Amino acid sequence: MNDPLEPVSYLEFSFFRSLVLAITSYALLQSYQIKTDDFPPDCKVPLVIRCLVGTFTFVITTVSLKILPLSVYTIVTNTSPFMTTVLQYLWIRERI
Asked: Which of 14, 30, 70, 84 is surrounded by the most beta carbons within 10 Å?
């Protein structure tokens, strides 16, 4: 009766986190009465790509936490904003 629970797979964790985030985002859009038709047509594809990249990034981060030592994971996670800034400067010429 008191059997220990099996650990949750990191892919299951990523899936359910992304599902909860999608449902929450949809609920917020509905509560502010924002329709997806209100977005400009030229912004819809980048928005979908951004959502997919964010989900994929979270899955990779979760997998890396399982594979890498904690010290390396912490370094990679904490240097992420700096790398984002460098990539934005090199890729889309955004000012630093």
From this structure: 14
* Cβ atoms of residues 34 and 42 within 8 Å: no
Predicted model pTM: 0.66
Over the range 43-68, which residues count as b (16 or more CB within 10 Å of their CB) and which as e?
Answer: eeeeeeeeeeeebeeebeeeeeeeee
pLDDT tens digits, one per residue of 48-74: 888 888 888 888 888 888 889 999 989
Give the integer Cα–Cα distance in Å for 44 and 30: 17
